[in-house]
Amino acid sequence: MLNSRPTVRSTLKALLYIAPLLVISLAFTFWPLLEAFAMGFYRHYNFYLNQIGSLSLANFQFLWHDAAFQLALRNTLIFIIGVVPVSIGLALLLALSLHHARHFAKLLQTIYFLPLVTSSVAIAIVWRWLFSAEHGGLNGWLAIINRTPVDWLNDPRYSLLALIIVCIWHSLGLNIILLLASLQQIDRRYYLAAQLDGANSWQQFTNVTWPLLTPMILLVSINAVIVNLKVFDQVYALFNGSAGPANADLTLMYYLYQKFYVEDQPTIAAACGIVLFGITVGLTLGTLWVLRRHHYPQRGWSPS
Amino acid sequence: MGVTSSPLPATGVVPILTRCARFLRGALLLISALTMLLPFIWMVWASVQTPTYTATLTTPFSDWHWQNYLTAWQAAPFGRYYLNSIIVALATTTGQLVTSILAAFAFTHLRFYGRRILFNALLVTMMVPGELLLIPNFKTLSALHWVDHYAALIIPWTASVFMMFTLHQAFAAQPRTTYYAARLDGASDWQYLWRLLVPMNRTVITAVGILQLISTWNAFMWPLIMTNTDRLRTLPLGLLTFSSDIGTNYPLLMASTVLVIAPLIIIYLFVQKNLILGISQVKWHEKSH
């Protein structure tokens, strides 16, 4: 029962309840985590026979000097800078508008959230058609405003932009939900008090909404950075199993996939995974640190 | 609603500025809603064109070619892909719900040695990106000879710390008095869990279950690496294979895309209230597929 002290008997009983989750986590999360870290340091490793040559930093040195890895890092960075601010900014604007909308708010929500439940592969295939040079919808629009058609998916200058557009479109709904939810959590009495003090809508926004929303915006942004750091499905599907023209859409995750699955270099892929993991943990801890420092309430939401 | 509906109504007409703002807001909402919808509309629209259709949207509309769906269905083993997706999604979700409910119950209602340490150790794994685990997991699954079996697609995903944590928060918020009352009436822990605690928390359980169903249905990278044969491909993989086979026959391609996304859209339209509630309450961070 509750509030009773733990005994050997109660511990055994509780372990029976936890066992299924624990066994699978041990086998497929804890153990591979250790193994992944070790694998990043293996040299002359035979993946299939599990023969380890020696331990060294060679894989990380290889990554440091590898032009493809540098390209992947650069592309991922540009991709994140292209997606996250636009997606969060638009989501904020739309969440605020939805929050004040009097009519059709439910219907609009349903529409915005549709891409969330749609397979990223299916989405990428539709966009592949919209982007296609001869009969794509986007070039049709460009023709209307008298611009020269763009070969979105085969021109290295535009293919990363195409990926950015698809991912903004795909991720907008989630950011709207999260921001809208925290907007709805703001106590109405703050607004009533502000109105009694004679604050207009803009003043209410800058003095009530914005400060109360900042922690959530930060959390949603960091979450978006972490998710987009790992973009893979959309690249694979948009460019039909390649990393875009002239590797223009080679991302870190795609690099990992290529090294592991195509080029059969699991140790280098593992090292790339460790780098990704390091960036994720760094970002997460950095966010938590900023939030603590500002004494923001966390409302039970934390970044991954 | 909040800002605009003031408790001290302005006398006379609504100020012109407020009206402008309201109009702009409406326009913004409408334009973005259309942008979100357009790819879906195009998808359905293109899927009923003549199979030789290649031109842009401006081509005059001729006839509804619903038979494209049948042609697409028969052109690739979509029946098999569907079956695989349904088996994998249902098995994974059920497995996760069972393991998470059991563990969340133990962590919230039972007292035992090492409770906090174990719980925190599990929570830390939520920070680990699933992709880091992909390579060693492939090794483990090869050693078990599970590659190219349903087991590889299901078993590693039947434990979700994210789901356990969400249910933990819900179960912890449950008033203790129900538990005491049930125990005093002679119910065992097991009976209390399945007869009272689970039914009382069905909203959050449904929400996390559906979130999981969506992410499993749409999973791509994991099944891409863990399967090599057509026999085990799930819908997203099957769709991509089909799309490379078929080239630029857009009507058939779009018909098959509609076939892939339709089930989830229908489920979504039925449970959307629940789902949105779930997403906004729940953290959106699990090891991604």
TrEMBL record, chain A:
It is found in: Cell membrane. The chain crosses the membrane at residues 14-34, 76-98, 110-131, 158-181, 210-229, 268-291. Keywords: Cell membrane, Membrane, Transmembrane, Transmembrane helix, Transport. The keyword Kinase does not apply. Pfam families: BPD_transp_1 (PF00528). It is a multi-pass membrane protein. InterPro entries: ABC_transporter_permease, MetI-like, MetI-like_sf. Residues 73-287 form the ABC transmembrane type-1 domain. Belongs to the binding-protein-dependent transport system permease family. This is Carbohydrate ABC transporter permease. It comes from Lactiplantibacillus modestisalitolerans. The lineage of its organism: Bacteria, Bacillati, Bacillota, Bacilli, Lactobacillales.
